[in-house]
Amino acid sequence: MREIGNVGFGLDAADPPRREARTTRLPASLVPSAVQACPTVELFGLRFNTGTAAGIVAAVAARQDDAPRMIVTANIDHIVQLNEDAGFRGAYARAVARTLDGMPLVWLARAVCRQPVQRVTGHDLLACVLADPHTFARRVFFVSSRQDAADALVARLRAEGLPDGAVASIVPPFGFENDRDYSRALAERIQAHGTTLLVLGVGAPKSEIWVDRHASALGNPMVLCVGDALNVAAGCLKRAPGVMQRLGLEWIFRFLQAPRRLFRRYFIKSWRFVGIAARVCLPHRIG
Question: DSSP strand E in 32-179: where?
Fold first, then answer.
């Protein structure tokens, strides 16, 4: 365990801070020429990618940006917050890729745009990179809400053959995003680690806003803000059965797992989405 300021990091003691050239070898089926023209649709004043998770990840990995390449996954709660939080909307606008996570958003996009739209969740994106860590995740940093989840994913990637020093994790304290010194030290450590994949599972909008706010200090990793998908990938939480996912009922399964935390989101805040969606659909009906 190393200490930087007030930040404790679970890193191997033999892992020195280092920088390395970041090049990505893509599978032949996912070379840049095959993925640069990812299809998109416009909703809520933003462009959303509608292709597959594998295509989106490959396209983002192939980019040569000098800043973090963040992928965000929109659900109903995100859309409501985008209308209320300028910082969140700015982070979304500066993300290099946006996907439609919630099924109601997918149905809305299909109705408005009349073209094929894939649902791509945080689960899908994380599964994609973890299935091929040597291509997409050579140096990984997990920012997790649970220590057991962080430990499980670190162990998984080490079992996949990544060196001990290539995988790091941190479980930040509650409210870390508002602690300037802690955030600065964490961002500097992520960059010094040479992180090529940064995964945040500490919830929205704090994950997206934190990455956007500290982008200049993070290097240029691919960034996934996946919330509880990190805990699911670690085996600490279960995901809804496939039939519930397809019917747009996954929220019920999630609510039953954490009713006190999610009651306000699903039964109070989510109703604001009805008005937002109506403003999207009305011009198309009139037209």
Answer: 40-43, 46-49, 69-74, 97-100, 140-144, 167-170
